[in-house]
Fold this protein.
Amino acid sequence: MEKRYEGKAKILYATDDPDVLLTVFKDDATAFNAQKRGQIQGKGEINCTITAALFAWLGSLGIPTHYLDQPAPTQLRVKSVQIIPLEVVVRNIAAGSLCKQTGLAEGTVLPFPLVEFYLKDDALGDPLLTPDRLRLLNLATPSQVEELRRLALRINEHLSAFFQRCEITLVDFKLEFGLDSHQQILLADEISPDTCRLWDQQQSDPQARVLDKDRFRKDLGQVESAYQTVQQRILAQLGPAYT
C-alpha cells in the first residue's frame, strides 16, 4: 500500500478507494514534542480499539466523524479528510501546561470547560493561539472556528459523563478535525489515553490515579496496565454493540 503520511503514533495508507484511508496505530510513544521517545507494548492495539469504540459511540450521538470500521486490531478504515492544522484542547480540571502557564494548582476544577486552540506544528512547538492569531493565520474561517468550539464542547459533555460512569475523571483532552470532500467538519485522528488526561476515581494517590500518557511522560511506570484499565472500563461500559 502507498504510505500517505507517518506521524508519531500512526501511519496513513491509501486504499483502492480514493475517499478511504487505512490508519495503522503504532506502539511508539513520544512526549515533550518528541524530545522523549519510547515504546509502550500493545499501545497501538489498545488505542485503536478505544478510538474505534468511542468514535462509533459518538457517531451514534450525532457527532460527525471520519471513522468507518476496524478491519484489524491496529487498523482503522477512515474517510479521507483534509486535516485542519489546529489542535483543539478542552480542559475541565487544571493540569499540565495550564498549571505551568497560569499558576493554577493541579486538580483545580475549572468553573467552565476551557476550549483552547493550538497550532499543529511540531517545529514551532504547537503554540497556543489567541483569537487574533487565529484570524491572522487564516487556518479556518470564523464560522469553522465556532463550529470546532461547538463540537468540542458537545464531545466534552458526552465524554465527561461517559468516563464518569467508568469511574474515570476526564481532566482534559485534545481533538483534531478534518474537512471531507463536501467541506463538512468531521472529528478525526483518535481519542485515547495518548490524547486524554484521565484520572482513576478508584485511586486517591496522585500518581496511582494516572491512567494516561503522563505515566510515560513522568516515568511513573505501569504504563501498559494503565492503558489496559482504560480499555477494559470503556468496553465494559459500552457493551458488545461497540466492541
